[in-house]
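User: Hi! I have a protein structure encoded as tokens and I'd like to know what sequence might fold into it. I'm fairly new to this, so please keep things simple.
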């Protein structure tokens, strides 16, 4: 049995845990296990299956990683500190070895209990994700520093380029979450003052909980989502909601139907106060918050995939192919760029609903969409029309990504796929994005990539074979 008082005192030495309630701190301590490690002993070996979250109460731990047969020191954890959160979030093996420099006293929190804390305390979650980002950026720095050969140096730079988007997704989700939660709390107070009957409140909660399940488990496909968003936007406009499009997509992600809204809102249609719309806003914002959490976790998983996939970049024949929904990959990528799209980019989707799944290297194909969509947004300076078309062409699938930007000058079109060639200002482009696109499409998937560009219409066409 853990000494509860001592455990709580240890937890409170860490800033993140200071945001937990006394009850929740006691809950944590009741579930922790004491771990003692003698100087020189190994706590975690690189590639070991992940365990839980470790809280270092006393002592120092050395962090190392093997590179080219040599164990390289990366840094150290000195009490008070915690570690192990990246592996819990990503469900990946340990990327480093942890060895005691001195005798160490630790508490271990099981992975499931740690995830419970994340979901229940948003401030705690935000601080943990900040630390995750810092540590993964440190690991990225290590990888870049160890690559000495020119080819491996190019791959490390490409990895750094790809890490930026999921890392930004983490930061963005955590930055947007606090004001959203505060607004939800305000709405709850306003609603509570009306003393609405329990049966009606239960209807709202049921709609919310059903939506949570759909969002967290990806039960709504991209094509259905697009169609439902349009239907809901029309309903909201008829109801009189200003900027209906802002509410329509979150409600669509939550699987809400217009019949459900008719039932929920019938008693509020003639209400002269903000309660006439507050339920719609509450439900939409609730879905946005759960999406922030899901996308933040997905960003962490994506970073881990990229780090663990470093060898796949070097040895391109060792990856694993999967059956993927092209539309889902495109939609996931669009979500990563939601902050840029909101600045003035209109997205037009022309999806072939009968498109078959493709046997491809899924994570790498997502890099293609990421680079092309990011470039399209930059080409339009954040304002314009982004059109994405999918269609089947005999024995292949074709994806067209078009933007309404200024176009690519004729004199540079022949060079855009060269490594390190970029037209972006210093610090904004590595020149590896389109080179990676070409490599993944042509070398990895035996596909083709074509470019047509003129002012107001630049189109990258990707053709991928079905077999």
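Assistant: Happy to help. Inverse folding works backwards from shape to sequence: for each of the 467 positions I chose a residue that suits the local structure. Here it is:
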């Amino acid at each position: 049995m853990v000494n509860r008082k001592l455990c709580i005192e240890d937890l409170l030495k860490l800033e993140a845990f200071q945001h937990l309630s006394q009850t929740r701190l006691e809950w944590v301590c009741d579930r922790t296990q004491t771990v003692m490690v003698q100087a020189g002993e190994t706590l975690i070996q690189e590639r070991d299956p992940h365990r839980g979250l470790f809280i270092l109460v006393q002592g120092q731990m050395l962090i190392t990683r093997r590179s080219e047969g040599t164990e390289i020191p990366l840094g150290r954890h000195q009490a008070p500190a915690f570690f192990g959160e990246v592996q819990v979030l990503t469900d990946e093996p340990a990327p480093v070895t942890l060895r005691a420099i001195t005798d160490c006293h630790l508490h271990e929190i099981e992975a499931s209990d740690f995830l419970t804390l994340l979901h229940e305390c948003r401030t705690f979650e935000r601080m943990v994700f900040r630390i995750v980002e810092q540590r993964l950026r440190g690991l990225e720095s290590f990888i870049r520093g160890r690559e000495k050969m020119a080819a491996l140096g190019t791959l490390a730079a490409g990895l750094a380029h790809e890490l930026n988007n999921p890392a930004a997704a983490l930061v963005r989700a955590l930055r947007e979450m606090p004001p959203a939660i505060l607004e939800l709390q305000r709405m709850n107070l306003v609603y509570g003052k009306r003393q609405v009957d329990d049966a009606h409140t239960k209807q709202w909660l049921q709609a919310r909980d059903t939506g949570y399940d759909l969002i967290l488990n990806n039960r709504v496909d991209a094509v259905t989502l697009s169609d439902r968003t349009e239907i809901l936007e029309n309903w909201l406009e008829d109801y009189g909601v200003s900027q209906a499009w802002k509410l329509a997509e979150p409600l669509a992600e939550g699987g809400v139907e217009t019949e459900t809204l008719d039932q929920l809102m019938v008693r509020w249609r003639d209400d002269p106060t903000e309660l006439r719309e507050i339920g719609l806003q509450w439900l939409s914002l609730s879905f946005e918050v759960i999406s922030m959490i899901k996308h933040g976790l997905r960003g962490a998983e994506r970073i881990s995939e990229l780090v663990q996939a470093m060898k796949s970049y070097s040895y391109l024949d060792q990856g694993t192919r999967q059956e993927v929904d092209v539309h889902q990959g495109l939609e996931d990528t669009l979500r990563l760029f939601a902050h840029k799209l909101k600045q003035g980019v209109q997205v037009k989707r022309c999806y072939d609903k009968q498109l078959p799944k493709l046997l491809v290297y899924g994570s790498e194909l997502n890099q293609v969409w990421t680079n092309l969509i990011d470039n399209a947004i930059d080409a339009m300076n954040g304002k314009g029309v982004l059109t994405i078309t999918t269609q089947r062409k005999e024995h292949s699938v074709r994806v067209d990504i078009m933007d309404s930007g200024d176009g690519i000058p004729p004199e540079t079109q022949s060079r855009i796929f060269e490594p390190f060639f970029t037209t972006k200002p210093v610090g904004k482009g590595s020149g590896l994005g389109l080179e990676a696109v070409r490599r993944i499409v042509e070398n990895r998937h035996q596909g083709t990539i074509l470019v047509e560009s003129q002012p107001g219409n630049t189109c990258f066409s990707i053709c991928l074979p079905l077999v």
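A useful reference point when you look it over: DSSP finds 17 helices and 15 strands in the chain. Feel free to ask if any position seems puzzling.
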